[in-house]
Design a protein that fits this description.
alpha/beta; Rossmann fold; 5-stranded mixed β-sheet
Length: about 280
């Protein structure tokens, strides 16, 4: 709709409660700006969908002494915890390093039960309120496991790792680090490598270029199930899992825009004169 998600979220929150103040940061969270952005806040909340940002948030919490309210979802299951290295373990105590790209499942293997993020988000909000009010027992040193299919809950007790690289007795990590972005499948990383370097492309700009007949070809990398939801007329279908194997089908002198269901896609301009990569919010 031509509006950043942070602004859309701010307007929605103000509509729900006009007495609150919402400050937005329309930027990518990085090691360079994370401390400055977080300096105004007491609690960090994990609303991420990727490992690099999650590890960055954890490290930020440890180095600044702020609690990190963690939430994750996978298929029909979710997890919630509060990582506060002053009183318990941090995320790295459980998972010292980000997983390799090939171990992270793609959309066709994973997917998320549609109501699950709202459920886990409500649990996270509960932990935030408890921390803000110093009330109850936050999930520090504990992880809540939720199975939506079985409608079951389980509490797992977590221990602090004395050899943790950031919150242990002799930490190796003493400053924030920018991690290489991990993607859902090796093919996704390969698609990004195909695309080279470049600039951002957003749906309104792309629509204008298509109307002007600038010769941009759309490549739909969604799987067949996702394509049943919606289609963009004229787009060629090459599912993400096949993109590397079928790369020979792409003309090196043709400009392509790759798009998927999620918020990041790539533009490929393979011409030696103008080789760029772009990111664009999904229009599907």
């Amino acid at each position: 709709m031509g509006k950043p998600k942070v602004e859309s979220a701010r307007q929605r929150l103000i509509a729900l409660n006009p007495y609150i103040e919402v400050r937005t940061n329309h930027t990518v969270l990085t090691a360079e700006n994370a401390r400055q952005i977080a300096s105004e806040y007491d609690i960090l909340v994990d609303g991420t969908d990727n490992f690099p940002t999650r590890y960055l948030l954890n490290d930020l919490g440890v180095l600044t002494g702020k609690p990190f309210v963690y939430g994750s979802v996978f298929r029909y299951e979710g997890q919630v915890s509060v990582f506060d290295s002053r009183r318990g373990p941090c995320y790295r105590c459980l998972f010292p390093e980000p997983p390799p790209p090939e171990s992270a499942p793609g959309c066709s293997e994973a997917g998320v039960f549609s109501v699950l993020p709202g459920t886990i988000g409500a649990f996270q909000a509960t932990e935030v309120i408890k921390l803000a009010l110093s009330s109850g027992e936050p999930l520090i040193g504990r992880s809540l496991l939720y199975d939506a299919l079985e409608m079951s809950f389980e509490i797992v007790h977590l221990r602090k790792n004395p050899n943790c690289k950031i919150c242990g007795k002799h930490p190796d990590i003493t400053h924030l680090i920018n991690y290489e972005a991990l993607c859902s499948t090796p093919a996704r990383g390969g698609a990004e490598n195909l695309a080279g370097e470049g600039r951002d492309v957003y749906p309104l700009e792309l629509a204008g270029r298509l109307r002007r007949g600038e010769g941009v070809e759309l490549i739909d990398v969604r799987d067949p199930v996702e394509q049943q939801v919606s289609v963009i007329a004229g787009a060629r279908s090459i599912p993400l899992e096949q993109i590397l194997q079928r790369s020979s089908e792409l003309d090196p002198d043709q400009e392509y825009v790759f798009f998927c269901r999620t918020a990041v896609s790539y533009t490929h301009l393979p011409s030696p004169r103008d080789r760029t990569r772009s990111r664009m919010p999904s229009s599907a």
